[in-house]
Amino acid sequence: MATPRDPERTRVRLLQAAFHEIHYSGFRSADLDAILAKAGVTKGALYYHFDNKEALGYAVADEIIASRVHRKWVQPLQNVENPIDVLIRIFQSESDKREDVQRGCELLNLSQEMSGLDEGFRRRTARIYKEWHHAMAEALREGQKRRVVRSDINANETATFLIAAWEGYAVLGKNSQDPRMLQSGKRSVRRHLEALRPARGRTRASGRD
Questions:
Q1: Are 103 and 186 in contact (CB under 8 A)?
Q2: What would you report as the CA-atom Rg of the chain, rounded to the nearest whole angstrom?
Q3: Which of 98, 124, 96 is closest to 110 using CA atoms?
């Protein structure tokens, strides 16, 4: 077990254990005893760091889920020459392993479950989606300035569509529990992204896998 002398490590272990339990079971069904067992800490240690289960869930959203989305979708799009190439790489790198498809997107799961029930969760998941959207839209606008993205598209609307399309495939994949659904989503999103290139760029990219 983590020792009381290492409170920060204890807190990290609690957050990681809570994230996995919430991702697997949902927030309302997440079992505190299972979280404690996975983290290897006592109930006293839990309440030393978090007032209640809700506070723990908020911290998971703020610190774990937000960080994962930032690393996956925000950082790679900063100061890039061609956002379409980067977006294709990100979408293609998304896991389509059966167990990951069955669990679904952690941000989407939490938003769907809790946004209508708890304003704190709604605000937190909305903030994460907003950062994701802003990163995509800003990268597309910069790509338009560099003439590697079509000038006639609306960057904000395109970013919204890409997020909605991908999260929609995540829902369908989780419901069907079929990795082929997410694989189909990757192909469809890639075709849409390729179509965002100026005509000359699409000609050069047509031979890509």
A1: no
A2: 20
A3: 124
Reading the block at residue 128, the tokens are 């994460």
Q: DSSP letters along 9-59, please?
A: HHHHHHHHHHHHHHHHH-TTT--HHHHHHHHT--HHHHHHH-SSHHHHHHH
Query: Which of 181, 202, 175, 177 has its CA nearest to residue 191?
Result: 202
145 token code pair? 């300035």
3.30.300.350, 3.20.20.80, 1.10.10.60, 3.40.30.10: which CATH number matches 1-50? 1.10.10.60
DSSP 75: G
Query: What is the residue type of 176?
Result: S
Helix, strand, coil abundance in the chain, percent, nearest 5: 75, 0, 25
The answer to which of 3-12, 57-66, 105-114 has the lowest mean pLDDT is: 3-12
Tell me if the pTM is above 0.70: yes
User: What are the structure tokens assigned to 48, written together?
Assistant: 């030393």
Architecture of the CATH domain 57-205: Orthogonal Bundle (1.10)
- pLDDT surpasses 60 at 201: no
Which amino acid is residue 99, in one-letter code? E
